[in-house]
Specification:
Blueprint (H helix, E strand, L loop, with lengths): L4 E7 L3 H12 L6 E7 L6 H7 L3 E5 L5 H11 L4 E4 L5 E2 L3 H11 L5 E9 L5 E5 L6 H7 L8 E4 H7 L10 H8 L5 E12 L5 H4 L1 H14 L6 H31 L1
Parallel strand pairs: 1-2, 1-4, 2-3, 6-9
Antiparallel strand pairs: 4-8, 5-9, 6-7, 6-8
Helix pairs in contact: 7-9
Length: about 260
């Protein structure tokens, strides 16, 4: 049986959430799914969990960054539709059936994405991302609005434009979305994935790094600061200042109470 969809999961010390990620792929109805775990050198129970998971392809890529790990998985993937699902994210039940059906119905489709629920560490829903149709100008003007776990790309896009840019530590997905401007991209109004937002996530821990990558991708495509980007950046800085001030006050209070 040929593989329709290959899912790459980069991991590094991901045991807290990996079981849920693995299960969300395993319970998909389609039998034409390949799940590849690429580990960057975990020292917790991640490797044992990945190796023991039924039907999972395990690949060690010690010392790799996230983009390198994803690329390593993409290069050995057998599916004609490719995606990556981070270890703390999940697919919704039946999501990959929707993806497989749409790509089979539309052979010229280059990429597809849908809605995505954002949840906290305890899986309580915080909000739902409803991105709407693909719009290159909107991506350039306002930044990334495509929910990465809910995006699926045909293999020919990577063959034509190259794999992820491994110099990007955070914005590798956004840089790829900008390459889709001349591709046939479809938005489906279905919740396909779950993105987990928690204090120890890579995104939450380095928002400045995310912004550096975003601006580099924008400038690579001939853009620059826009009012919308400036406003979002200012809000991010304000949030960081409030968080750091709160931590400082808590630290002072704990020392004072001693």
């Amino acid at each position: 049986m040929s593989v329709a969809i290959s899912v790459i999961t980069p991991t590094l010390n991901a045991e807290a959430f990996l079981t849920a990620c693995l299960e969300s792929v395993r319970v998909q109805t389609s039998q034409r799914i390949e799940h590849i775990i690429v580990d960057g050198g975990s020292t917790d129970g991640t490797v044992e969990m990945a190796r023991s998971a039924p039907g999972v392809v395990y690949l060690e890529c010690r010392g790799s960054n996230q983009s390198q790990a994803i690329n390593a998985g993409l290069r050995i993937a057998r599916g004609h539709v490719l995606a990556w699902l981070n270890a703390d994210d999940e697919y919704m039940p039946g999501a990959l059936d929707v993806v497989e059906e749409r790509f089979e119905a539309e052979p010229s489709l280059d990429a597809l994405y849908g809605d995505c629920d954002v949840v906290d560490a305890g899986r309580r829903r915080l909000w739902r991302e409803v991105p709407g149709p693909y719009d290159f100008d909107r991506l350039m003007r306002r930044g990334n609005y495509l929910p990465q776990p809910a995006v699926f790309v045909h293999r020919r896009v990577f063959e034509r434009t190259g794999y992820l840019d491994e110099s990007f530590e955070f914005g590798m997905d956004y840089e790829l979305w900008l390459r889709l401007r001349d591709c046939r991209v479809e938005y489906v109004p279905h919740v396909l994935a779950i993105f987990r937002w928690h204090p120890t996530s890579k995104t939450a821990m380095n928002q400045l790094g995310n912004w550096r990558d975003l601006l580099r991708a924008v400038r690579r495509n001939g853009g620059g600061w826009t009012p919308a980007l400036a406003l979002s950046f200012t809000r991010m800085l304000y949030t960081l200042v409030r968080q750091r001030a709160g931590r400082t006050l808590r630290s002072i209070g704990s020392h004072g109470s001693g």
